[in-house]
């Protein structure tokens, strides 16, 4: 064996590896002393022992092992590089320490595991302990459960991921060993302390006696939430706060108590169940059977399967279509109820994964609300409420608004009640003005409905909206309601209780501060985890940064104005001629009124001069605008033959509009005369000045619509040309917000066909200005014009290329104050084109509903076995979209049909499908958002195709879609990370290349982007050089949004193959 002197002279690290146990024991003792002496956590001395720490804990000699464990614990606590040893050391503790008879060894082993958790290696420790639960030695299993319990007790449920623990917990209750069952019971009690009733569903199938014992233990637990008592190295600020609270007697604020426990969704703790393969083989035949008993059998089979609370993701398209058909067309109300319940269960079991089917089902459910039987209505309500939680109100808005004018009162009532329930789950961020405005307009109509149940439902919906976003935000859209109705809405708002006991914004400014912190908790667990947008107040007070986005310039660019008393539109009844004369006599000199209709033009001129002086000095509050403009229209009125008098008259009309509370009623008196003089050589300038003043008082969209229709009702080409010229200039001054595109395009087409060249030229000039705001979609309206005329239009559009819409210099009085709020709130946060900025303009375009043209025959053709028939179906689809030009988001069952063709074996058809999807993006605009999940992600799948031309086409299609939808919907949820899991090098390099371009353009990203980080790290070491390159390009863009700390923490989940591998990142280094 040799003399001890042989190994006494060896260095410490060599002693630790010596074959003699005494040498190793001595080595461990000296290593312990050395570790305690080293002050610098980054000292190179630590590196010498990096590969030996596992041997410290797996020592075969029991005496030496104890000392090795002590040394390892000090190493892990103090060495900067200790984290790299976590996996192998904890694995060694589980297999070689937890089976030891000595309690001290097990205690040190548990301490080592907890120390790794403290140095940010919780995931690795948890994985190894969970592996230990499968060990055949019950001592090891007991020790692993006990260590997990200690980790949870000390670090809390935010650090220990309970989902994986709860998944294996029921199995421990089935163990033959009493010690394992007892320790599992203690762990279940500890878990219950942290997540309460969320633990019940996963344990519902354990032995009833054990469950009863657990129930008894759970009732003994204190009601106060548990607190984290041990902290990670990155949580030192929390540790200081905890110690301070302990020193002050352990008092904790309500806010801290709320944040002490991480909210756990029971759904997350459940294992998904795959049901598609378990469906009866004859289901689709039976569901179409003529006998209702057979259809009932088919639905009963599905009902049993869908009762599983969490379902595995899959292609549920055929099942959803079958259930939708029963709901919409089956005459048996019992079967309708069963199908609705199946849809509700599917939505609840799939959650966000059901979102891609929501758009197909919701219109059918809303229409079916015409059914009056209570059991059917309740089933439909359950279904639509469950479906709502899988998508967003924005995605469903078009379908809801479509039925708000339905003749059936039951449909209107239930649509409003659904809105009221949906609003409860919204916040100020998820219910912006752009979404609230059309809903309020539709609900205001229902408030005046003849059916009392429709009125009551509308009041409830408006009251709920008021509770959520605040009285001030909703009142903007309620100007036409009388006081009684407003009081009723406020009364409804007071009765509304929001989920989670959160406070709404209805309390006004005084409640905004405390309400701000409660808002994020309002979302149900199934909603998006994306960070909340700014509140209205914050958004409105912060000016927009960067250049105005296309289509938004009309409302977002330019200066701001202070809110004045003119913020409400002036409503005025039409006065009689006698009343107007009486009012005018009270503010104008008698001589002025007497000389208005004098035969001597000089007297009429003098009268106008007096009139002007009186208006200039008149108090705005007492100015009778309607009476004054009626005096101007008094004979000879707008037929005045003297140009000097007419110039004065037009100037006074402008002054009254600028200085008084000028209503649309007053404007109607003067507009006809102004249009009649707009083409006059001497008076045209004054007429345009007056029209602009009216536009400021009554809004440009309204004024322009009246003026253009009046001009084209005449046959005077000079007036028509000058009206179009005035409108082109006015658009630049006011911006494009609210303009009735459809109405103007019809008049412009008339002007383009005029025989007078000045009218045609003015029309083309106007189109050029409109192109500044609308961009390429404008041209689609004129594709059927003659080639010569179209070339002139194209030439005008070409002049506008590269130009941005000018900042507005004029504002409508009643809207000037609102501009601030609208601008901040409706800013595009997605970084894409149409997601927010372009939406306002694109929404102005007249759209065609093509759902009736997407027939079942067409869908069958697209899915036919014969590729020629499939191509024929695709050709017909392209023709339908092309003919409609601009379409609504309702495209029936087309999404699922096109999705199938993206995976077609015939690559020509895949290419054609991608072309149709590009066509769809241009035609549908921002409404495309609701099809991102169903149709958008299959485009990403095509990026993995081996053919370069298909990948190129897929990327062009993807960019076209993102331009309309923005990026948010693409980054939310698990869909993007699921695509990256395909391990396709082409797909991965294309997606990471795309993300590296898009992410830097975004201000915020959804938290779900974090799901892609492990795959990004994997791709950094991919065998394919292009994948590695694109992943490295994307890495800093991920870090820009997620932060360095989160990215570093995510590396802890990696299995380190080469601990010295370094990823180079601009500005920093990440150790893999």
UniProtKB/TrEMBL annotation:
InterPro entries: ARM-like, ARM-type_fold, CLASP_N_dom, HEAT_type_2, TOG, XMAP215, XMAP215_CLASP_TOG. One of its GO terms (biological process) is spindle organization. Residues 516-559 have a biased composition (Low complexity). Residues 1-227, 268-505, 574-806, 843-1069 form the TOG domain. Residues 498-575, 799-842 are annotated as: Disordered. This is Cytoskeleton associated protein 5. It comes from the Eukaryota. Residues 818-831 have a biased composition (Acidic residues). The keyword Repeat applies. One of its GO terms (molecular function) is microtubule plus end polymerase. GO terms for cellular component: cytoskeleton. It comes from Kryptolebias marmoratus (Mangrove killifish). Belongs to the TOG/XMAP215 family. It is found in: Cytoplasm, Cytoskeleton.
